[in-house]
Amino acid sequence: MTQANPPASARGPRIAVYPGSFDPITRGHVEIVERAARVFDAVIVAVGRHPTKPGYFPVDERLALITASVAHVATARVAHFTGLVVDFCRREGAAAIVRGLRATSDFESEFQMGLANRDLAPDVETVFLIPRPEQMYVSSSLIREIAAHGGDFARYVPEPVAAAMRARNAQRQGST
Ligand code: COA
Asked: What tens digit of pLDDT does each residue of 56-81 get?
């Protein structure tokens, strides 16, 4: 047994970072948190800043909504980071970055990001988890678009998110 691969008893808890925009967190994201929690000792759901995506919910609200949505996962916690995800992983002592892989269309960008992250931090593995087929086509922007046009978005998001989106829609309608 090499030092790079110590026995489970000799190492600390296996921590995974699940980074994303989570704007908002979806049921598909929650499923990935649940799956990651079965594999790792602890999962940090980490809200990062995507360079080109405008925000829908402010980061503080996203953090609160994620906290409420993953409250049933005892080993999950929620954080916000700026800068590189691999630097955040190192600060937290995380062994892995978890990403959900929904369809082949995700693959190219995830592959690129996974390779870049490995080049920056060879000690941090990227682990891809696959959600249930029902979640494959869902994304945060799709849900935002359905909501913007008055469609039924509630089945795609945890209840706290649905409530926050309804409140936001009502506020917008009130102000027009
Ligand atoms: N269920 C539903 N939707 C899912 C999903 C799932 N299981 N998994 C991903 N998605 C959706 C998201 O809703 C999002 O949809 P949108 O584009 O419509 O908003 C899309 O897939 C991808 O988003 P997400 O997983 O949140 O990733 P991201 O690309 O928005 O976030 C960061 C990227 C923040 C993790 C990344 O930019 C980052 O790490 N930034 C920090 C800088 C850095 O280190 N960069 C990498 C080095 S090159």
From this structure: 999 999 999 999 999 999 999 999 99
Both tokens of residue 17? Answer: 């970072």
Between the CA of 90 and the centroid of ligand 1 the distance, in Å, is 19
Q: Sheet of 96-100: strands edge to edge? A: 76-80, 42-47, 15-20, 96-100, 125-129
Domain ranges of the chain: 11-138
Instruction: Note the pLDDT of residue 10.
Output: 62
The model carries a pTM of 0.91
- Low-confidence stretches of the chain (pLDDT < 70) are 1-10, 175-176
Predicted confidence at residue 9, as pLDDT, reads 57
Q: Is CATH 3.40.50.620 the right assignment for the domain spanning 11-138?
A: yes
Name all residues whose Cβ lies below 6 A of ligand 1.
19-23, 26, 28-29, 32, 48, 50, 53, 84-85, 100, 102, 113, 116-117, 131, 135, 138-141
How far is 45 from 21, CA to CA, in rounded Å? Answer: 10
The two three-digit tokens of residue 3, written as one number:
């030092």
Q: Which of 112, 107, 88 is nearest to 18 (CA)?
A: 88
